[in-house]
Amino acid sequence: MIHPIVSKTFQVSESDIDELNHVNNQVYVHWLEEAARYASAQNGWSSKEYFENGYAWVVRQHWIEYLRPCFCGDEVTIYTWVSAMSEGRSLRRYALVRNGKLCVTAATEWNLINVKTGRAIPCPENMAACFEIVPDDDVRLKELKIHRPLRYEPTGL
What we know:
Layout: E1 6-11, H1 25-42, H2 47-52, E2 55-66, E3 75-86, E4 89-98, E5 101-114, H3 125-128, H4 139-143
Antiparallel strand pairs: 1-3, 2-5, 3-4, 4-5
């Protein structure tokens, strides 16, 4: 069963907080990567599965828009979905919600590589088939109140 939009919840701890008393930028990036791994595993491709098959996804670039800060003790839910896939590249979108309010939108462009050579490779069809592409205007995003236009334009996807 394909899970097109996956959510993962994080509890903000003291170690996540910076000198401005809100979640540090590096923590958000860590959460994005954790949410991506979790979503991939939910669709049948755990880190173990990738490595056993000689594959790994590597980050080409992250894009993050901060809308509201998160604070110690907050519960943050990250929704993530694949919005585009072409060849060996994937654009994964994220929406971070706290108390029903959108706090962060983000996107990561991932490249699939052969772990032995470190070189980019096309995404095998059996892997691509495990991920539903969720377009930016998908009604499910609107229903979750996480629809927001992406101000980042990836090239070639």
